[in-house]
From TrEMBL:
<dbReference type="InterPro" id="IPR052907">
    <property type="entry name" value="Beta-lactamase/esterase"/>
</dbReference>
<protein>
    <submittedName>
        <fullName>CubicO group peptidase (Beta-lactamase class C family)</fullName>
    </submittedName>
</protein>
<feature type="region of interest" description="Disordered">
    <location>
        <begin position="212"/>
        <end position="231"/>
    </location>
</feature>
<dbReference type="InterPro" id="IPR001466">
    <property type="entry name" value="Beta-lactam-related"/>
</dbReference>
<dbReference type="Pfam" id="PF00144">
    <property type="entry name" value="Beta-lactamase"/>
</dbReference>
<feature type="domain" description="Beta-lactamase-related">
    <location>
        <begin position="17"/>
        <end position="395"/>
    </location>
</feature>
<dbReference type="InterPro" id="IPR012338">
    <property type="entry name" value="Beta-lactam/transpept-like"/>
</dbReference>
Length: 400
């Protein structure tokens, strides 16, 4: 009997085949994938184990930590406030956050915050998970901090600081946390939380590192596929070597940006993090709910269609100062690039956001597609995880 359960429209059977293959080849522990086509749910599949220690199975309502997929919701919240006239995207941040003008940042605009151009990819000091539960305090840290480059002159992925920069738009101009704003404004009916209650945390999937599951020196399936992924993304040997060096250097921009605040004991299974709802990487959600968010975005039910079209227009593209790979961003949303790897059919109009470990949320207004994939078996190497790509490729093939 297949470990995969749920519904799949016959026209999208290819998505189920890839999902089942990922389990059969040992690429998954537990996972879920959901697809909407023109507003209709055509794929809602799940399978495997939600907690490897207890053997608890993944159920249709099992939420999973979605890492940086969270950023798309923070962006949507900030964009909704701009649409309502709360601030100007091209106006100075100091109009609504006066303290942010310190240390040479007085020319920073809201667009710089949303496009990873603020020059604040990492905190200057170690920040604990407990401290990160206070958004006002962390925003204050960033307001006082000197940028690593002049805002607007370069872009580099603000892996965690993004949440307390873009999120401060929401906190200051709505008086609510990002989690509260998102839930009240456009996710009331979705199983999606940026700051989860105890009962949701209790039934959430538990993340497992691929190296821990494999043990010893056995490479995970995803690590073994890293060469194929590098070829597909057109990553040359020199860049691959620099990526590996950055990945292993604790002082690299990549590591400073992705590991501070540190989630503490239990990593991102830590209830302190899950309750806090970091607006950069703090969301618990199900795959149908995350896909449902993109369904509603594409349908014009969260932002006006013209607002979304402008938001997904690429603002920055090219080598990323933090991640080294080529990245492309609209206003808070990733666009197809080496860091947001998509099939050719998605490259003109798809947008969304990836998350560490392999998760992804994506919308495509031209194709009428909304897609989400959430695994609890985390990939070892960012360049080696092809699970989401294969599922997305099957989804686009099914549309044809």
């Amino acid at each position: 009997m297949s470990t995969v359960q749920g519904h799949c429209d016959p026209a999208f059977a290819g998505v189920r085949e890839v999902f089942e293959q990922n389990f059969a080849e040992g690429r998954e522990l537990g996972a879920a994938v959901a697809v909407y086509a023109d507003g209709r749910k055509v794929v809602d599949l799940w399978g495997g184990v939600a907690d490897r220690r207890t053997g608890r199975e993944w159920l249709p309502d099992t939420p999973c930590f979605a890492f940086s997929c969270t950023k798309a919701l923070t962006a949507a919240a900030a964009l909704l406030l701009a649409e309502r006239g709360a601030y100007r995207m091209d106006g100075p941040v100091t109009d609504w956050w006066p303290e942010f003008g310190a240390a040479g940042k007085e020319g920073t605009t809201a667009e710089h915050l949303l496009t990873h151009q603020a020059g604040l990819p990492a905190f200057a000091r170690p920040v604990s998970a407990e401290e990160a539960a206070d958004p006002a305090a962390l925003a204050g840290e960033l307001a006082a901090q000197k940028p690593e480059w002049t805002p607007g002159e370069a872009h580099g992925y603000h892996a965690l600081t993004y949440g307390w920069l873009a999120g401060e738009i929401v906190r200051r101009l709505s008086g609510r946390t990002v989690g509260a704003f998102v839930k009240e404004e456009f996710a009331r009916d979705l199983d999606l939380w940026i700051g989860a209650p105890g009962d949701v945390i209790e039934r959430a999937a538990k993340l497992t590192a691929a190296r821990r599951l494999q043990g010893g020196g056995n490479a995970s399936p995803e690590t073994r596929s890293s060469d194929a992924s590098a070829r597909a993304r057109k990553i040359d040997g020199d860049l691959l070597n620099r990526l590996v060096a950055a990945f292993t250097d604790p002082q690299s921009a990549m590591n400073r940006s992705t590991n501070n605040p540190h989630p503490g004991k239990g990593g991102y299974n830590n209830p302190v993090v899950l309750r806090a709802g970091w607006p950069s990487a703090g969301m618990l959600t199900t795959a149908p709910a995350l896909a449902g968010f993109y369904r509603d975005l594409v349908a014009g039910e969260i932002l006006r269609p013209e607002t979304l079209r402008d938001a997904i227009r690429p603002r920055v593209s090219g080598p990323d100062r933090t991640m080294l790979l080529e990245s492309s961003f609209g206003l808070g949303f990733m666009r197809p690039a080496q860091t947001f790897f998509t099939p050719a059919a998605a490259r003109e109009s798809a947008f969304g956001h990836t998350g560490a470990g392999g998760s992804i949320g994506l919308g495509d207004p031209d194709a009428g597609l909304a897609f989400a994939y959430l695994p609890n078996l985390m990939s070892d190497m960012a360049a080696g995880d092809m699970r989401a790509y294969r599922l997305l490729e099957a989804a686009y093939a099914s549309l044809a």
